[in-house]
Hints:
Layout: E1 3-4, E2 10-11, E3 16-17, H1 25-34, E4 40-41, H2 51-63
Helix pairs in contact: 1-2
Amino acid sequence: MPLTTYNHVSVPSFMYGTAWKKEATTELVLQAVEAGFTAIDTANQLVHYDEARVGEALLQLAKQGITRDKL
């Protein structure tokens, strides 16, 4: 059974979590997408997550043709 949000957006059942990755976040997000992940967990808890570095990964992915709408 596929997972969907309240407004019927499809959500992968398995996500890559970015907590506790610190300065390795950008590279690990790139590796996760290369490995096939299409969902990245970036909960806004500044003590555990580095959303800016996830954003850096998204910019690099966009330059490779992997845009946010594909994730």
